[in-house]
C-alpha cells in the first residue's frame, strides 16, 4: 500500500474512534454518575451522623445536621447505611437508603426513600424527617426502651430455688408528679430519707427527662425508718412494686452468688455493646461470672417521641421497632440451702474475716461456702489465701506414711527445736505427757510441731507437694465452675522454709475450700474434686467469664501466690502423684479421730451421729509480738467434710473449734 493510502486509512480509523467516543459521551451524559456519587455520599454522611458537608434543599444544611443528631441521639449508636439503585427522571433522582442498626442484642433494618434534585452541576438532597426513618414526623426523636428478659434462676441442691424473682419496692422521685422548680428539693429530701448522697442524687434527678422516674433505692420491704407514708410525703416521692432476682435474705451467700443491679458505667464500657444504661446485670460471684447465661437477651423497642410544645404536655409515642426478649438460663448448683444458712448463722457474730466450707466427700459437692460478716463482702471461703497451720499435718502424715511410717511409729517431740538459728516450739499449753518419744498418732492428736519438723530430713519438700496433690489440694478443679484458690504448696524449699512448711507455714497457702477438700479426700478414701456449678458447660458458648483466679487477694507477705494456684492453671493429675489410697486414708482417719478422743478437740465427741474426726491448726502471721494467728479446724462427719477458718483469732481448737461444733450439731439435727 502506498504512503498516501496508509495515511487515508489511519485518518478513517481515527474518525471512527472519535465518532464512537462522541456517541458514548452523549449516551452517558445524563447525570447518572453524579447522582450515584451524591447518593453514596449521602449514605456515608448519614452513617457518620454528619451531613454538614452535603448539598441540602428544604432545610438549612446546619439545621439538617442538628436534626439528624437529635433524632438519632437516643439510639446511642451509629447505623450502617447503603444507597440502593438510583432511578433518574430528568433532573430528579430517587433511590432507597438501607439502614442497619445494632440496638442491644437486636438488629433493626429498614429502608427509607431519598430524592436528589439537580441544580446546575450539583445534586442536592431533598431533606425530610422520613429520610431518616419511614413515618418519622417533624419534631420527633428516636429513643430505645429496653424490654428486660426474665433473668435465669440460681438453684441449689435438689433444684431448690436460691435466687428467684422476689417482690421489691423501687423508691425514688417521679418527675411527672412534681413541679420542675420543686424537683431539686424533693430529690434532696428523698436522699435524706434513703441515706443517699444528696448532691449525687439531685444531679441524677436534674439530668433525667421530665417523664422520668429516678430510682434511689430498692427495698425488699418497708422499714420503720422508710415507710410508704414518709416516701409519699415528699412531693414526687413514689414507690413502685416490682420484682427482682434475689436470694432468700440480703446476706445469703452474697460473696459467692454476687448480686444483680443496674450496670455501672465501667461494665457498660467493657461489654462490647451488650449492655446499655439502665440494663440489669450481675456484679461479683456467680451472677457476674455467668451473667450472659443468666441474663438472656433483652428485647428492645425503638420509640418516636414528638417534641413537647407546652408545659405539662404528655406526648404520645410510636413504636418503630421491637424485638422480643429471650429468657435467661437457669444455673444449677450443689448448695444446700439449710447448710448454707446454718453456716452463715454460725459466723454471724464473728468479728474478723471468717469462713465455713462444707463438702460431700462422696461426690465433691460444695454444700456450703459461707464468708462471715468480717469478710466485708469478700469471698473468703473460696478465694482466701492463708497459711493452713497444723491442719497441714494431714499432708505431712501422708508423706510420712509413704516413707514407711504408721500411726504407731515413734517420733521425737521435744519442747523446742532450732533449725538454722530459728527456734520452733509447740503451741501454748501443749501437754508435757506427750513430749519425748511418742506415737505419731499422739503427736498428731496434740499437734506437736517439733515432731513434724523433726521429720523434715525424711520428708522432702517435693514429697509434701506430691502428698498435697494426692489429697486433691493444689490441683485443677475442672468441675467447680466458680472462681477459687485451690492451694499452693511449693515443690522446693530448704532450711527454715522447709521446716516451716512442715507445720503449714512458710509459703504454703490454703483457702477454706482447699482445706475442706483435703478433709473430704480422707473421708472419701480417694482424691475429691469439688463441684459447685452443675451446668457450667452451658456457659461455655454464652460468653461467661472463665477466669478462676479472678478476685484473688495478696497473701500476708504482700505478694500474690504463684499463678499455678489458680483453679485453671494447676495440674489436673501430675504423673508423679499417686492418689491417696483407701488404706492411707484409713490411717489418716484413725489419727483424726484421735484428735477427738485423746487430743484437744474432745468437745467434738458430743456431736450426735457418726464419730467425728478432726485436725486443728493455728498459723502465725504478721510482725506483731506476740504474732497474730489464723485459727483453723477441719473435720469429717459421715459424708460431710467441713473447714472452719477465722482470720485473726487465737488457737484453732478454742476459736474455730466451738464454731465447728455448733455447725455439726445443728447439721446433724
Automatic annotation (TrEMBL):
Q: Does the keyword Nucleotide-binding apply?
A: no
One of the protein's GO biological processes:
antibiotic catabolic process
In the UniProt record, the signal sequence range is: 1-27
The protein's UniProt keywords, in alphabetical order, are: Antibiotic resistance, Cell cycle, Cell division, Hydrolase, Membrane, Signal
Positions of the Penicillin-binding protein dimerisation domain: 147-304
Where does the NTF2-like N-terminal transpeptidase domain lie?
A: 46-139
Q: Tell me the ranges covered by the Penicillin-binding protein transpeptidase domain, including all copies.
A: 355-663
Q: Where in the cell is it found?
A: Membrane
User: What are the GO cellular component annotations?
Assistant: plasma membrane
Coiled-coil annotated residue ranges, if any: none
Q: Which InterPro entries match?
A: Beta-lactam/transpept, Beta-lactam/transpept-like, Beta-lactam_class-D_AS, MecA_N, NTF2-like_dom_sf, PBP_dimer, PBP_dimer_sf, PCN-bd_Tpept
The family classification in the record reads:
Belongs to the class-D beta-lactamase family.
Q: What is this protein called?
A: Beta-lactamase
Q: Which organism is it from?
A: Paenarthrobacter aurescens (Arthrobacter aurescens)
Q: What is the lineage of its organism?
A: Bacteria, Bacillati, Actinomycetota, Actinomycetes, Micrococcales
Amino acid at each position: 500500500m502506498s504512503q498516501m493510502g496508509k495515511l487515508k486509512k489511519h485518518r478513517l480509523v481515527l474518525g471512527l474512534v472519535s465518532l464512537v467516543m462522541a456517541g458514548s459521551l452523549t449516551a452517558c451524559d445524563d447525570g447518572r454518575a453524579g447522582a450515584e456519587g451524591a447518593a453514596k455520599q449521602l449514605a456515608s454522611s448519614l452513617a457518620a451522623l454528619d451531613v454538614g458537608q452535603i448539598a441540602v434543599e428544604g432545610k438549612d444544611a446546619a439545621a439538617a445536621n442538628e436534626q439528624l443528631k437529635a433524632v438519632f441521639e437516643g439510639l446511642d449508636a451509629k447505623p450502617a447505611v447503603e444507597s440502593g439503585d438510583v432511578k433518574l427522571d430528568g433532573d430528579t433522582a430517587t433511590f432507597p437508603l438501607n439502614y442497619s442498626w445494632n440496638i442491644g442484642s437486636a438488629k433493626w433494618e429498614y429502608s427509607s426513600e431519598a430524592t436528589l434534585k439537580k441544580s446546575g452541576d450539583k445534586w442536592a438532597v431533598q431533606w425530610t424527617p422520613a429520610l431518616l426513618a419511614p413515618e418519622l414526623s417533624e419534631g420527633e426523636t428516636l429513643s430505645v426502651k429496653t424490654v428486660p428478659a426474665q433473668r435465669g434462676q440460681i438453684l441449689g441442691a435438689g433444684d431448690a430455688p436460691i435466687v428467684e424473682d422476689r417482690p421489691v419496692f423501687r423508691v425514688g422521685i417521679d418527675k411527672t408528679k412534681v413541679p420542675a422548680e420543686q424537683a431539686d428539693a424533693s430529690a434532696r429530701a428523698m436522699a435524706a430519707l434513703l441515706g443517699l448522697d444528696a448532691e449525687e442524687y439531685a444531679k441524677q434527678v436534674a439530668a433525667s427527662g421530665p417523664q422520668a422516674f429516678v430510682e434511689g433505692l430498692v427495698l425488699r420491704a418497708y422499714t420503720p425508718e422508710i415507710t410508704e407514708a414518709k416516701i409519699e410525703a415528699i412531693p414526687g416521692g413514689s414507690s413502685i412494686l416490682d420484682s427482682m432476682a434475689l436470694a432468700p435474705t440480703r446476706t445469703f451467700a452474697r460473696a459467692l452468688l454476687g448480686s444483680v443491679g443496674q450496670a455501672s458505667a465501667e461494665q457498660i464500657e467493657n461489654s462490647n455493646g451488650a449492655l446499655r444504661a439502665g440494663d440489669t446485670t450481675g456484679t461479683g460471684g456467680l451472677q457476674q461470672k455467668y451473667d450472659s447465661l443468666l441474663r438472656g437477651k433483652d428485647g428492645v423497642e425503638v420509640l418516636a417521641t414528638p417534641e413537647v410544645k407546652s408545659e405539662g404536655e404528655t406526648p404520645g409515642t410510636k413504636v418503630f421497632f421491637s424485638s422480643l426478649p429471650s429468657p435467661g438460663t437457669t444455673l444449677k448448683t450443689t448448695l444446700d440451702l439449710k447448710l448454707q444458712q446454718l453456716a452463715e448463722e454460725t459466723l454471724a457474730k464473728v468479728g474478723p474475716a471468717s469462713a465455713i466450707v462444707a463438702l460431700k466427700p462422696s461426690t465433691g459437692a460444695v454444700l456450703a461456702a459461707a464468708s462471715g460478716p468480717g469478710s466485708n463482702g469478700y469471698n473468703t471461703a473460696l478465694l482466701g489465701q492463708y497459711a493452713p497451720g497444723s491442719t497441714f499435718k494431714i499432708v505431712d502424715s501422708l508423706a510420712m506414711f509413704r516413707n514407711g511410717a504408721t500411726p504407731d511409729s515413734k517420733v521425737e517431740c521435744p519442747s523446742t527445736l532450732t533449725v538454722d538459728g530459728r527456734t520452733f516450739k509447740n503451741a501454748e499449753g501443749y501437754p508435757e505427757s506427750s513430749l519425748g518419744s511418742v506415737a505419731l498418732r499422739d503427736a498428731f492428736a496434740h499437734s506437736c510441731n517439733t515432731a513434724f519438723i523433726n521429720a523434715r530430713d525424711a520428708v522432702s519438700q517435693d514429697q509434701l507437694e506430691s502428698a498435697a496433690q494426692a489429697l486433691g489440694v493444689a490441683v485443677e478443679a475442672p468441675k467447680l465452675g466458680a472462681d477459687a484458690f485451690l492451694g499452693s504448696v511449693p515443690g522446693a524449699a530448704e532450711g527454715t522454709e522447709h521446716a516451716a512448711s512442715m507445720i503449714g507455714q512458710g509459703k504454703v497457702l490454703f483457702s477454706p475450700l482447699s482445706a475442706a477438700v483435703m478433709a473430704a479426700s480422707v473421708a472419701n478414701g480417694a482424691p475429691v474434686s469439688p463441684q459447685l456449678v452443675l451446668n457450667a458447660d452451658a456457659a461455655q458458648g454464652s460468653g461467661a467469664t472463665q477466669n478462676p483466679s479472678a478476685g484473688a487477694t495478696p497473701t500476708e507477705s504482700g505478694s500474690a501466690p504463684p499463678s499455678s494456684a489458680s483453679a485453671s492453671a494447676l495440674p489436673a493429675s501430675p504423673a508423679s502423684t499417686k492418689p491417696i489410697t483407701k488404706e492411707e486414708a484409713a490411717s489418716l482417719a484413725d489419727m483424726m479421730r484421735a484428735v477427738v478422743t485423746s487430743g484437744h478437740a474432745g468437745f467434738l465427741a458430743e456431736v450426735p451421729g457418726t464419730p467425728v474426726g478432726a485436725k486443728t491448726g493455728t498459723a502465725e502471721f504478721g510482725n506483731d509480738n506476740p504474732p497474730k494467728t489464723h485459727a483453723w479446724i477441719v473435720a469429717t462427719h459421715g459424708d460431710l467434710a467441713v473447714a472452719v477458718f477465722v482470720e485473726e483469732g487465737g488457737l484453732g481448737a478454742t476459736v474455730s473449734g466451738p464454731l465447728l461444733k455448733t455447725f455439726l450439731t445443728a447439721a446433724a439435727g
